[in-house]
Design a protein that fits this description.
Blueprint (H helix, E strand, L loop, with lengths): L11 E3 L11 E4 L6 E5 L8 E3 L1 H13 L5
Antiparallel strand pairs: 1-2, 2-3, 3-4
Length: 70
Amino acid sequence: MRFRFDMTTTAWRKSSYSNSDGGSCLEVADGHVGVLPVRDSKNPSGPSLLFTAHDWNNFVDAVKSGDLSA
């Protein structure tokens, strides 16, 4: 199922784990009911990924625990 969200007026914020050297930075947008938009701060006009809160929490937990392998 595909949904369309108007992201043109979205206020993005950098992750608290992002650094100031221009490295790998993640931006998230608050205030979207039911989803959490995520994008690469180095490519603000690029695509955004939309996660449910449940899926985002599972992803963050997996990263923190080292369950994701490269």
